[in-house]
Design brief:
By secondary structure, the chain is α+β, with helices and mostly antiparallel strands. 43% of the residues lie in helices and 23% in strands. A hairpin with a 5-residue loop joins strand 2 and strand 3. The longest helix is centred in the last third of the chain and has 56 residues. The chain starts with a strand and ends with a helix.
Length: 191
């Protein structure tokens, strides 16, 4: 169950039927989703807020949109061979991104829709594929280098100057104290 979207539509634009809606105790609307619909909704939410794009990919997709690209196919193969995850940094046309793939291990409930595939319970047949645009983070790092680092440098310089002034003042007081002692000793000798 997920909270009902305010526009009354799934991520793919289809209208949510009244038979899928449930009302909570406080009157809030909830939508009953299949695993595929849940995946699409999660990817929609990620894409809106966090510079992510995501989708499900499979060796034998029921939906052609879920066919893996070249990197995803290689990553799926490594996941099936036992890798826990796969990732790569992609640098392209003035853009840098991270691609990440995490396996979905087949459970009995998965075979309700995915029967007839070559993968069975406990095997990796599909995965969640995410791509995160790194530009906002690179921009933040540039601001950090341009603003925060110089600010810390200035604070360090001010601190070192403060230590220097304090050290100079301490040495001056010690000299004055030593001169005062010498003056007292000379006075005592004269008396």
């Amino acid at each position: 169950l997920i909270p009902a979207p305010s526009d009354g539509r799934f991520a793919d634009g289809s209208i949510i039927g009244a038979d899928r809606l449930l009302l909570g105790e406080s009157g809030e609307a909830w939508v009953r989703l299949s695993a595929e619909e849940m995946s699409r909704e999660i990817h929609r939410d990620l894409g809106e807020d966090l510079h992510f794009t995501g989708r499900s990919v499979a060796f034998e997709p029921r939906n052609p949109k879920n066919a893996p690209d070249e990197w995803e196919l290689a990553a799926l193969t490594s996941l099936r061979a036992g890798a826990e995850e796969a990732h790569i940094v992609v640098e392209g046309d003035a853009r840098k991104s991270i691609r990440y793939l995490r396996p979905i291990v087949t459970e009995e409930a998965c075979l309700n829709c995915h029967n007839g595939t070559t993968w069975g319970i406990g095997e990796v047949g599909c995965a969640i594929s995410l791509e995160m645009d790194m530009e906002p983070f690179i921009g933040a790092a540039k601001i950090h280098r341009a603003v925060v680092f110089p600010a810390y440098l200035l604070l360090w310089i001010a601190g070192m100057l403060g230590v220097g002034v304090w050290g100079f003042s301490l040495r001056r007081r010690r000299r004055e104290r030593a001169q005062g002692r010498q003056g007292l000793e000379k006075s005592n000798i004269r008396l």
